[in-house]
Structures are given as structure tokens and as C-alpha cells.
Amino acid sequence: MLAIAVLSLAGAVVSAISLQRHYAKSTTTYCDFGEKFNCDIVNRSEYSTLMGIPVAAIGVAGYALMLILATYYRSRTETTTRLLIAALAGLGFALYLTYVEAFLLDTWCVLCVSSLALILLITVLAGVVKLQAGKST
Predict the structure, then answer these.
(1) Which residue, 112, 97, 107, 103, is CA-closest to 34?
(2) What is the DSSP letter of 50?
């Protein structure tokens, strides 16, 4: 649970930076490696919002939820299931956004790929925690 909490905090930070770049007017120099790797193109595209909500804000909220589950609610029996569901939902959303980057925008965002790696690790760990909880009951 500690590793999930740390990864969730890292994901919230990455998503918060991405959210800031979504609203920024200036270019992002640390994330601009040409047309194929450019966070600004991705973060300001038509795909960067869902029903008017920036996807980075959804990421901040999702990672915050997993951080809360992995810390404050870690001792509750239903937490392992809720955490795995949240992680799977986040991974599914991240994979959709990766599809958008690869096939619709043809541009990659280093922040987004970092977030994908974090949610993938969280999902694997949440699955392990869920399996271990099932064995101990």
C-alpha cells in the first residue's frame, strides 16, 4: 500500500503539471522534442478535455482517490477491491489517451507517457494487494 501511495502521489504531481501546461500560454521547453514529442500539442488538443473538463484534472482526481484509498482507508476490507477498480479504470482511460496520442494526434507527451507508466505500476500493485488480501481471508 505504501508503494501505491507513493506512485499515486507522483501521478497526482505529473497530472498537476500537465494541468498547468493545459492552461499555460507559454511553450513547454522541457517537454518539446519536436513535432513527435510535444506536450503542448497534446495538452492543448481537442482531445485534452472530456465534457469541458481537462483530462489532466481527471488524472489529479483519480490519483488523489487512489492515494486516499491507499492511506486513510487501507485497513478496510473493501479497500483492495475499490483500489483495483480505480486503478483499472485509470489504466483504461490512460490507454485510450495513449491511442489518441499514437493514432489521432501522432504526437507523444512525455508527461502523459509518465502517467501511463505510473498507473500501470499502480494497477499491477493493486492486483497483487488484492490477491494477497484474498489469500489471507
Answers:
(1) 107
(2) E
